[in-house]
């Protein structure tokens, strides 16, 4: 696995209470939690005005912030 950047899963920083709320919302909306988290990240980045920050693609399909 050499040459691949290591990413930590951010889900381990979500509290048990918040995860329970996300799970319930998933059931109601019939939308995967990963999609809801991705949407929240996009909204956060827009709000923080991150247009000038470039994501560098890597082999895993994820991007590192430059």
**Which percent range fits the helix content?**
40-55%
Largest sheet: 2 strands, antiparallel
Structure summary, number of beta strands: 2
**End-to-end Cα distance:** 22 Å
- SSE pattern, N- to C-terminal: HHEE
Largest beta sheet: strand ordering: 1-2
Number of helices: 2
Please give the structural blueprint.
Layout: H1 16-29, H2 33-47, E1 55-57, E2 63-65
Antiparallel strand pairs: 1-2
Note down, in words, how this protein is organized:
The structure is a single chain. By secondary structure, the chain is mainly alpha-helical. The protein has one domain (15-65). Helix content is 44%, strand content 9%. The chain has a two-stranded antiparallel ribbon with strand order 1-2. A hairpin with a 5-residue loop joins β1 (55-57) and β2. The two termini are 22 Å apart. The model has no long low-confidence stretch (mean pLDDT 78).
Question: Could you provide a short overview of the structure?
Answer:
The protein has 66 residues and is mostly helical. Helices cover 44% and strands 9% of the residues. The mean pLDDT is 78.
Which properties best describe this structure?
mainly alpha; 2 helices; two-stranded antiparallel ribbon
């Amino acid at each position: 696995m050499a040459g691949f950047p290591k990413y930590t899963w951010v889900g381990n920083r979500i509290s048990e209470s918040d995860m329970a709320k996300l799970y319930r919302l998933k059931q109601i909306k019939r939308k995967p939690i990963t999609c809801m988290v991705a949407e929240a990240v996009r909204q956060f980045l827009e709000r923080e005005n991150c247009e000038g920050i470039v994501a560098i693609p890597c082999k895993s399909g994820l991007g590192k912030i430059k």
